[in-house]
Amino acid sequence: MLRSLYAGVSGLKNYQTQLDVIGNNIANVGTTGFKKGRANFSDLFNQTLTSSTPSQSTANTSGVGGTNASQIGLGSQIGSIDTIASQGNAQTTGRTLDLMIQGEGYFQVTDGKNTYYTRAGNFYLDQNRDLVTSEGLKVLSNGQNGTPVNFNPNDYSSITISSDGTISGIRKSDQQLERLDQIGVATFANPEGLEKVGGSLFARSANSGAAEYTGQGDIKSGALEMSNVDLTDEFTGLITSQRGYQANARVITTADQILQELTNLKRN
């Protein structure tokens, strides 16, 4: 069978995967704190020919120069699907509990069993005055053993959140400033190694490293970090993927026509 037939099939599968990644990026262009994906290809493997010509590379000798190996590639494969952790654009909301991190770091949240990390800072207070995400996960304070952030805004005339996550309020009773809690921010040696688990959440992986609590960026109150998807790049990639898919389909069609010619030799 023709090698090009199988090479074309591998190309179709890879471009389909790339289209899936791009489609997911475009679908999440408006998702708060979303980090886009990127599919990378690598060649599958190469077959070294055996013929009268040298199949392996050789060094030069006293009378003959060196030769290169004769190899034919047998297609491509998905080398990696990366998460691009670059900063998304800021959207000003003016709401105190809308937070974004300018720079490195992730907010820590918990479902009571597991700790997750997110860049989506649209937070709310529940009936127990715990700071929670839109899905009800509790936001944790700073440190390895952070506890749920809790405060009652009704006792204060105003609430402010500083760049290090410290929540402060001016007491209604005596107009004195009081420190209420501190929102935790975790950083990772390899943030692109975090695993997406849905709901704009990430989980620690073996390659992300442990959560650290130094070197984090500044917290901005009254703003949200939007998706880092750039539609210009995505539509360019969409066109490239479509043409690549069409070209690989044409390789398969051409290989099929050659095979048809071979099967027709007996008739002719």
Walk me through what this model shows.
It holds the Pfam family LlgE_F_G_D1. This protein is of the alpha+beta class. It has 2 domains: 3-49 and 71-84 and 230-263, no CATH class; 90-225, no CATH class. The protein contains 2 helices and 19 strands. The chain has helices at 3-27, 231-263, and strands at 37-43, 46-48, 71-73, 76-83, 90-92, 99-102, 106-110, 115-118, 124-125, 131-132, 138-139, 156-161, 166-171, 177-182, 185-186, 195-198, 201-203, 218-221, 223-225. Strands 7, 8, 11, 15, 16 and 17 form a 6-stranded antiparallel β-sheet that branches. A 3-stranded antiparallel β-sheet has the order 12-13-14, with no helix packed on it. Helix 1 (3-27) packs antiparallel against helix 2 (231-263). The radius of gyration is 28 Å and the shape is elongated.
Descriptive key words:
three-stranded antiparallel β-sheet, single chain, elongated, 19 strands, 268 residues, alpha+beta
